[in-house]
Amino acid sequence: MTPPPTVLAVATVSDPDVKAGYATDESVGAQAPEHFEVVRARSLDDVVEVMRWADATGTPVVPQGAHSSLTGASVAIEGGVVLNTEGMDSITTIDPLEGYAVAGPGVLNKALKDAVAAEGMFYPPDPASSAFCTIGGNVATNAGGLCCVKYGVTGDYVRALQVVLPGGEVIRTGHRTAKGVAGLDLTGLFVGSEGTLGVVTEVTTRLIPAPDPALTVLATFDSLDAASAAIVALRRERHLPSLVELLDRAAIAAVQALADYGFPDDCEAVLLVQSDRPGHTSEDVQRYAGLLTDAGAVDVAVADDPAEADLLLAGRRALSPALEAEGPRYLEDVCVPVGRLVDLIREGQRIAAERGLEIVMAGHAGDGNLHPSIFFDAADPASRERAHAAFTLIVDAALGMGGTITGEHGVGSLKAPWLPRELGDPMIERQRAIKALFDPRGILNPGRVYWS
Ligand SMILES: Cc1cc2nc3c(=O)[nH]c(=O)nc-3n(C[C@H](O)[C@H](O)[C@H](O)COP(=O)(O)OP(=O)(O)OC[C@H]3O[C@@H](n4cnc5c(N)ncnc54)[C@H](O)[C@@H]3O)c2cc1C
């Protein structure tokens, strides 16, 4: 690789141990390549410089935030440069009147939420990784999370972007005003592009007035079928809950093994349901409790003590590390129509029984977005193969139900083989043509999303 120009000497990581820390993400089996560089960008100029140099030398660039990707989207590439934007972490504007904030790509999701909350505003997108993932990564993956059932995903809260293209050109997309329909929606194009079109260097997010502190219902079920039926009933509500999360028996056990988060140990599934509707949280959770009982919950508890509610939610956020501690797993992210959730869960259970696998069911079930964890024995290649086959079957099942291969984690490397199946060749061709328009030399995150 051609040595980086002088300005990058400041930002390029030379210590091999530090460098290794940027080589992989949180995806299963992520492997560090042998030769790669890491640049920790601190400013727009750093990004421009890297993109100029990379384009001139044909060096692959992996834009990177907190490398919490679960799909291999932010793993270093052999002979490439990891362009990490965590250091661009300033919030320069919070404007409650106009309803926006301007943040660097390295600002943590939770830091933005906390900063705007201090001004009485709310930035809803809430991935379970909120405490450690970056806004740049959220934009690039169109991240979802726990409150999408009411508030939608990251893309619903991005008004404008500053992006650096290969060659170093800086462009601005979108608008800061509450409305703006001039021209094609290039902001929407960059949202969810997984670092394949440009490097996001500034994000203008839409803010809304802060909701009330949420109240929580914990409903327990003696079957996943009953929990799925209750979700359908909740989705028919006029005032949608702000959160509907599902954990099955094994997921609850894994979380409770970490600490006592207040989940019961004698049921097949729980639903965590919240309301944050200003002035109506008590009335909503009472109504949800009645509806959940009617739908077949064996027990319903309303956590009106915020500390108790926070503890339950902390338990939900601890689910990923809790399952991680149980052993290696493939983590699914399919999303199906809510009315087909029960079919997806049954299919997962059938596959688990047929293949002799443990598949733990949990996820943002209020959206039909499930994260089945398919466990395998790392020392046994046959077990890993069976787990991968089950992963494939679940994706196939979701597509067959009119669903999608990824509800929120993105395509990355992990799901790239399935993208043509979901989109079809004519659409893949057009998407490749759009990529070529922004990245003619194909240096941005090559091999991710679109198989080379
Ligand atoms: C425990 C855990 C829980 C999670 N829960 C959720 C969840 O509830 N919902 C959800 O949606 N995801 C979740 N994730 C996945 C992950 O946190 C999200 O995909 C997140 O948006 C990634 O942000 P990041 O800063 O880590 O980005 P990275 O992992 O560093 O990068 C992700 C993608 O964004 C691109 N990218 C990063 N920064 C930039 C930039 N400045 N410009 C252009 N492209 C860029 C990368 O190239 C890559 O394609 C979870 C992950 C973990 C480990």
UniProtKB/TrEMBL annotation:
Q: Does the keyword ATP-binding apply?
A: no
Alphabetized InterPro entries for the sequence: FAD-bd_oxidored_4_C (IPR004113), FAD-bd_PCMH (IPR016166), FAD-bd_PCMH-like_sf (IPR036318), FAD-bd_PCMH_sub2 (IPR016169), FAD-linked_Oxase-like_C (IPR016164), FAD-linked_OxidoTrans_Type4 (IPR051914), Oxid_FAD_bind_N (IPR006094), Vanillyl_alc_oxidase_C-sub2 (IPR016171)
Identify the residues that the record assigns to the FAD-binding PCMH-type domain, covering every copy. 31-210
Q: Which UniProt keywords apply?
A: FAD, Flavoprotein, Oxidoreductase
Q: Name one GO molecular function term.
A: oxidoreductase activity
The record, for Pfam families, names:
FAD-oxidase_C (PF02913), FAD_binding_4 (PF01565)
Q: Which cofactor does it need?
A: FAD
Q: Which family does it belong to?
A: Belongs to the FAD-binding oxidoreductase/transferase type 4 family.
PANTHER family, per database record = GLYCOLATE OXIDASE SUBUNIT GLCD
Name of the featured protein: FAD-binding protein
